[in-house]
Fold:
Amino acid sequence: MRLLFASSEIYPLAKTGGLADVAASLPAALGRRGVDVRLLMPAYAGVAVAAEAKAVARLGNPFGLGDSLLLEGHHPDSGNKLWLLDHPILFNRAGGPYQDAAGADWPDNDMRFALLAWTAARLCRAESPMAWKPNLLHLNDWQTGLAAAYLRAWGGARPGVVFTIHNMAYQGNFAAERVPQLGFPWSFYTMQGFEFWGRLSCLKAGLVFADKLTTVSPTYAGEIQTPSFGFGMDGVLAGRAKDLSGILNGADYKVWDPAIDPHLPQRYGPDQLVDGKAANKAAVQSDLGLDTNPAAPLLVVISRLSDQKGMDLLLAVMPAVLRSGAQLALLGSGDKGLEDAFSALAAARPGQVAVHIGYSEGLAHRLQAGGDLLLMPSRFEPCGLSQIYALRYGTLPVVHGTGGLADTVVDATFDALLNRTATGFVFDQPTASAFQWCIERAVGFFRSGEHWRPLQRQAMQQDFGWDQAAARYLDLYRSLRPNGAPAKSRRKAHL
Ligand code: ADP
Structure:
């Protein structure tokens, strides 16, 4: 099986969220199962050096923006072969993958990611400058969605194409005039194609033209076929229901395990839970300027600051939560209004609220280890990784029961406590009152002591490793033949 896995971010080379973690660890798990994997991403600033990549081919100049090169290197952790799309004008910039340093979207994101998609498609074709050709192409999110459309537009032989939705809210919708500029015939710009409310939608291109669709949790797979969660694409998805499945993301326990985590002042496994948590909590409190009080419940948040993540709900409940004596340590960045509001809260409540606006891998790990509760009041959550990591660190998640949060956290109900399946606290409605009540319930457990350690132990025992998910992706790949034909069930798959 020769798999080309295309993503706009791959940890640790470029990361803005969970997609990067998945794009590193899923291909690594597939590689361990014998799949011949190549990764493809853009050569953002510094990536070629980190991946020790060298130019191996010219890719041409499809949109008249100048030549691009293909670089070949390897993923620094898994060692998987990595191809980089090198077009310095488009990708070698100071700032993030999608936004400049001030947080504004790059104005040419359409051309940047159309070129990434074009390159992914090109590498699957006879015209590819490389001898290695995939018999499966795995695309991720809107940034690579057009690859599925290019392969259809060009016709002829192509690999089976899988498209994974990591978040329906990001769609890559652009002006219709791009259709010919990107080399597509107008016949693709229809309701049955990638037209979406008068724009060219890169997400819809993936949804319509890929052979199989996946998303990152079973609950989200159902939710996105409804108007409340489909962001206008629910009809398209319902029409493709038989090709859509939800496969829960995994956690990379080589990166996220408190027993071996190099970022922690003190490592711990289930047997050192009490001392380990206490030491990490004290370190977080003192590093962030919080009162070093072991009895104060420490609530942690590691999140993009956005409406999706329910950060406005968090702001709304903070006055009441703080009155109860809890502390908050928040790491995040995003919406400017939310950044300012949380910074103001920290300034008003020194010793009780610490806010770090920005991105810090090390602090994310230390908060996971030092916190008592991790808060995720997301309005929708395709999978969510932070709560899965929190379980392993014995930091009990408080989550809205949606998407992957519903699939990974078991609420501490009376029954679940009795049969030892509870791992956290879940609330049903994304409202401030439901969230506040859930935090108070969780804090009640923390303070009473009863059930607290067994709950933490139960959480730490959960196994969301990649093995199960990788096996499901393999089954899906095996169900596909080149050109999207289904594998014949009588014949053994020999991909
Ligand atoms: P999403 O992809 O929607 O942002 P996930 O929960 O799937 O949310 O993944 C979030 C990932 O990003 C986790 O690995 C988390 O640790 C990380 N993360 C989020 N915000 C920050 C931040 N400010 N600093 C460091 N890591 C962060």
